[in-house]
Amino acid sequence: MGSQEVGKLTMTKKKGGKYPGEMERDASLLRDVFESVQDGISVLDTDFTILQVNPVMEEWYADTMPLVGKKCYRAYHHRDRPCQNCPTVRCLKSGHTERGVFPGLPGSGISWVELFSYPIKNEDGEVTGVVEFVRDITERKKAETALLKSEQRSRALLSAIPDLLFEFDRAGTIISYKGRQQDLYSAPSEFVGKRIEDVLPRQLVKKTKTAIDNALISEEVQRFEYHLPIRGKQHFYEARLAPSGKDTVLALVRDITERSIMDCKLQESEQKFRMLAENVPGVIYLCHNDPRYTMLYLNDAVETLTGYPKEDFLADHISFVDLYHPDDAAWIPEAVERAIARRDPFHLTYRLRHRSGEWRWIDEFGCGVYRDGELLYLEGFLIDVTERKRAESSLAQLNELLRLINKIMRHDILNDLQIARSAMDLYEELADDALYRKAMGRMEQGIALIKRMRELESLLVAGGTLQEHSLREAILEVAGRHAIDCTVEGDCIVLADDALYSVVDNLLVNAVEHGKATAMSVSITRDGGNCRVCFADNGKGVPGHVRDRVFEERFSYGESGGTGLGLYIVKKTVERYGGTVEVRDNRPRGAAFVLVLPASVHSEK
Fold first, then answer.
1. How far apart are alpha carbons 73 and 49 in whole angstroms?
2. CA atoms within 13 A on the CB side of 510
3. pLDDT grade, residue 412 (50/70/90)?
4. What is the DSSP string of 464-503?
5. Residues 487, 493, 495, 497: is their CA dihedral positive or negative?
6. What is the DSSP string of 192-249?
7. Would 554 disulfide with which of 80, 456, 564, 593, CB 3.0-4.6 Å?
8. Cβ(321)–Cβ(329) under 8 Å?
């Protein structure tokens, strides 16, 4: 350049014959380039004074503006003298372009910069100044650093992995090898630089060549397994081949002998487990401990238990949680969580809805599966115990019924014997044959009751079912044995057993002995699927304050209170038939006992 002014370049005619107009156009172009370049540009004199900067430098060093007129080392680096190894110092001395890489600008996001110092020379070749180009290379340095780290990691990885690494060319020549020599089929000196058909068995050559060709064509990883004898022992390997260039392939070979042996043992174990799982009389499961107990494994028996195929459970289309009985749904998860918290196995008995709508009783035995103290899964066994629960229920009902029969016999026979004894005492005083006949009738009645209850007990123990009985006939038969005026209207057929006669007998005894009734009116009506029987007497009635308790076992009241078993027997027997009983006032006087019993299908409507 011909001459310089601070802040601008002034052009005069130079050698070469350009006129001022042409030079002005060149200067304008240079200014446009100077201001549009995205690198930082500084023009310095030989004394390191800044003569001119472009907008990029002004932006970078906005905190130290103005820059023009200051020493570069003070404005840019806050130093009292030029930096060591400064490219501009070297440029002034050498007269050539110099370069350097330095840490970035303090207080900015620029971590690294590259500095080019270009000499400005006059017509005599003397250096009269320097142009500095400062380029932000932060991203490039980051990339170089990342690449260096990646290369270091790759080298470390290759050194650490126990696998064998081979490089092949397209023709199948083994270019290089890395790995432990004791794991090799032959020594590296016998195969490096040779074609695989000269080194490997024939069956392995074909697999390897096919994998090389496919890797180069598809540019995708190819995988195959093979086995070779190493030091007299058969070893199994897995080879993975990937293209590493246009005509080269890298092969990573891993010894999988232990894994193959374990796989064989695992397959044998799985076969044994599946044979066991598919033949046990119940459901074996493995599931997550989540709100739906998401299933990971189920045997086929689940379809017999629930009606749903195991695929529906494994796909979470349905869960055992969806099938829990409403009364069991809340406590089941709580019981499981309590057991897991204590690391105890759990045993649950609950109801599950079959696909048919039937409720089935289930016994579940389960426990947690842990690893390093952490719960991984739940595993367990489900078995259908519906028949067992039915048997238990039947046994409980039978025991309750036998207990009731015992109460009936003790209560009713005691009544008959008391009446017979009273009649005999009067007979001794009065010698009235009617009293003798009354005593004998009561004893015969007690004997008949014993026979009837014995037959009922035998029938129940043998698993007998309820039979059809006419309410009207049963009431009239029993009423004939009591000193009460009894009328019966209507009839209805119910399913009952001989305990029905004890129900009627106890209601009549209660009316006569405790209620002091002289008349009983019985009405029998059909009410939908039920038979409604109302025993209304003209006695004293039942006080309101004891009405809710008269059916309790051993409850008695008043001067004529008995054993407290009569009405209890009535209630338990009626409930066993599937019915209900209640007591009401009988207007204008007396008590009314209302029984509702399921009607037989043959009962007249």
1. 9
2. 29
3. low
4. ---EEEEHHHHHHHHHTTSSSEEEEE---EEEE-THHHHH
5. positive
6. TTSBGGGTS-HHHHHHHHHHHHHHHHH-S-EEEEEEEEETTEEEEEEEEEEE-SSSEE
7. 564
8. yes
Question: CA separation (Å) from 39 to 50, 66, 140, 381, 413?
Answer: 17, 19, 15, 75, 121
Q: Is the pLDDT of residue 197 over 70?
A: yes
The pair of structure tokens assigned to 407 is 């109460």
CB 95 within 8 A of CB 9: no
**Is beta strand 174-178 parallel, antiparallel or unpaired with respect to 164-169?**
antiparallel
Can you give the pLDDT at residue 605?
Answer: 43
Q: Which tokens go with 30?
A: 């240079």
* Alpha carbons 67 and 448: distance in angstroms, whole number: 131
Rg (CA), the chain: 54
Spatial neighbors of 266 by CB under 8 A, at least 6 apart, are none
Scan for tokens 């270019």, then name that residue.
175
Burial 19-57 (b: 16+ CB within 10 A, else e): eeeeeeeebeeeeeebeeeeebbbbbeeebbbbbbbebb
With contact defined as beta carbons under 8 Å apart, do 479 and 508 qualify? yes
Report the C-alpha gap between 487 and 491 in whole angstroms: 12
- In the chain, where the domains are located: 3-137, 161-260, 281-384, 388-464, 465-605
Instruction: Render pLDDT for 280-329 as a digit per residue (tens, 0 to 9).
Output: 778 999 999 999 999 999 988 999 999 999 999 999 999 999 999 999 99
What's the DSSP call for residue 165? E
Q: Are 282 and 384 in contact (CB under 8 A)?
A: yes
Phi, psi of 223 (to 5 degrees): -135, 140
CATH node for 465-605: 3.30.565.10
With contact defined as beta carbons under 8 Å apart, do 86 and 100 qualify? yes
412: closest CA among 515, 565, 558?
565
Instruction: For residues 489-496, give the mean pLDDT.
Output: 93
At 63, list the tokens. 């905190």
Q: Over pLDDT 70: what percentage of the chain?
A: 81
| 8 A C-beta contact, residue 535 and residue 511 | yes
CA distance 326 to 125: 102
Amino acid at 468: E
Q: Does domain 3-137 have CATH number 3.30.450.20?
A: yes
- CATH topology match: 3-137 vs 281-384: yes
DSSP letter for 513, please: I
Let me know if 584 is exposed, middle or buried by CB neighbors in 10 A (0-12, 13-18, 19+). middle
Q: Which long-range contacts (CB under 8 A, 24 or more apart) does 281-286 make?
A: 281/383, 282/381, 282/382, 282/383, 282/384, 283/381, 283/382, 283/383, 284/379, 284/380, 284/381, 285/378, 285/379, 285/380, 285/381, 285/382, 286/369, 286/377, 286/378, 286/379
Distance from C-alpha of 539 to C-alpha of 544, rounded to nearest angstrom: 15
Q: What CATH superfamily is the domain 281-384?
A: PAS domain (3.30.450.20)
Q: What is the CATH code of the structural domain delimited by 161-260?
A: 3.30.450.20
State how far the Cα of 574 lies from the Cα of 581, in Å rounded to an integer: 7
Question: Hey, CA dihedral for 526, 532, 533, 538, is it positive or negative?
Answer: negative
User: Which residues have C-beta within 8 Å of that of residue 375, sequence separation ≥ 6?
Assistant: 289, 340, 368, 369
What's the pLDDT score for residue 401? Answer: 66
